[in-house]
Amino acid sequence: MPYPTDRERDRPWVMRTYAGHSSAAASNALYRRNLAKGQTGLSVAFDLPTQTGYDSDHELARGEVGKVGVPVGHLGDMRQLFEGIPLHEANTSMTINATAMWLLALYVTVAEEQAAERGADRNEVLAGLAGTTQNDIIKEYLSRGTYVFPPGPSLRLITDMVAWTVRHAPRWNPINICSYHLQEAGATPTQEVAYALCTAIAVLDAVFGSGQVPEERRGEVVARISFFVNAGVRFVEEMCKMRAFAALWDEITRERYGIENPKHRRFRYGVQVNSLGLTEAQPENNVQRIVLEMLAVTLSRGARARAIQLPAWNEALGLPRPWDQQWALRMQQVLAYETDLLEYEDLFDGSPVVQAKVDEILAGARAEIDRVQAMGGAVAAVESGYMKSRLVASLAEKRRRIEAGEDVIVGVNRFTSTEPSPLQAEGANAIETVDPAVEARAVEAIREWRERRDGAAVDAALRDLRDAAKTDANLMEATLACARAGVTTGEWAGALREVFGEYRAPTGVSAAAAAGEAGAELGRVREKVRATGEELGERLRMLVGKPGLDGHSNGAEQVAVRARDVGFEVVYQGIRLTPAQIVAAAVQEGVHVVGLSVLSGSHLEVVPAVVDGLRAAGAGDVPVIVGGIIPPEDAARLRERGVARVFTPKDYALTDIMSEIVDVIREANGLGR
């Protein structure tokens, strides 16, 4: 958005709703309704197969198609997704990382097709495209888990996109440095600022070191680097964090890269407030949480967000309905158009209290940036496991404070008595559900697409892509050729997997410091684990598994850390495992219990597959427990399928959960409680 002078009323930020599910057609209808309600930008949520480079008919895609976003398998899907939406007039944010180059190529191709239909010049259309591809792969290794390739090739893809957009689509933000998921993974404000800016340094060093951008255009590169942040409920601290972010970005771009134009150095960011801070218990409290968190990124004019998307009140329960998303949009509109917020200069300039907090965050962030740079930068700190272990330890400490009641979560660990909520009176209908037939239709559709296209053209485009990947050529043009030829998402990623290989990031569990919890309850459970192990004649072993493509591993990691703290031997192999791989590991390791974590909505497909697999392998006596965002009726179905226990976000006391897991093991082995 354009920036007014200090004496003008500030313009409202771009208002978005993060949306997409089921199919391109269903998501297109949702986008057009949201735009009609006054939304000023689009924010596309892609499903996990699309994000991780698989087609809908791949084994790992089972149960994941259309659940947390829209499946986009090829150019036809992208055409349908934006049917009736002129891309030259749109401002589109696409939450996509490992496959960002591919999705941008599909988007650009659709924009070119729309231009041809109305006789417009292709280059003028590309020059006017506005929006963002998230494209921050480093935070994927640390938090969200939708990475595909190793760090080096991933950074190359980002570099090629930045260089291509500077030349051809100068209004497009080719990367959105995303600290949002770092906060969800446990980052303190200092860590969030430091690690995000370390990522930005890694990207800029790679781009400028590639030789693809002339010296005189470096300022244009910096000007297109945007950020995407998380705003928690401690909104004064969060506001100070944003002022620190802006000051440090200005300092780094000026001193490290010599960028002289202050407009190029401006810190530009969008925000979604903290979705994982929303509660399943008393979910109506989430409304005020969302509004307070929005204040963190709007109150300070000098560090105000230029794009905002808000979650819905019921996201801790499942997929929000269109009405819920409308409510979140109206919150933004009331703040922007009914209040006087935008009429004033910065409210906090000159405040000694605010400046002291900003200085504290700045000092801590500078020290942490120096520490990471001394290790060799963000990529080296990822590969060594340093940053991941720091985040796991921070989240463990945060959970300890919540369980001890030191940090109050209203309706969860204090003020828990409640009246029945009329917002949930509809029961299961209080959230959006995805028809299981969606996946079957997507599988059929992508197979039909493969049959209809020109196979020779596809083979030639993929061959050229593989050949280019073996050189230092910019891969954007080869990717565009693949898009136009009808290549699928899985084929594009598969070709690059052949050249680049795949990657499994460190989990951070083994290196994470213990949470520091002591006291009678932890000691009691530790003794219970020891005694049960003695009765069985061996130390208790627990496998923590993440089946399918759900990369949100924070909960699984915290379960693994706490299980280790109470005396379990823990088997945790990270994310993105097939049910068959989990079963094989459980049998090979001889575990006493299998714990599965699923937050993507695929629990009814992947969990029974693990239960059935254990039975087929002769290990049907090994109990399976499940944790995740699981509606009550789904939990009942899982128990009917043989799952011993189901835990949801309301079950926040990990030590109590550990005690119940021991009870499950005792029941399964015929031992009394």
From TrEMBL:
B12-binding domain residues: 539-668
Named cofactor requirement(s): adenosylcob(III)alamin
Signal peptide start-end: none
InterPro entries, alphabetized: Acid_CoA_mut_C (IPR006159), Cbl-dep_enz_cat (IPR016176), Cobalamin-bd (IPR006158), Cobalamin-bd_sf (IPR036724), MeMalonylCoA_mutase_a/b_cat (IPR006099), MMCoA_mutase_a_cat (IPR006098)
Family, similarity comment: Belongs to the methylmalonyl-CoA mutase family.
Record text on subunit structure and interactions: Heterodimer of an alpha and a beta chain.
Descriptive protein name: (R)-ethylmalonyl-CoA mutase
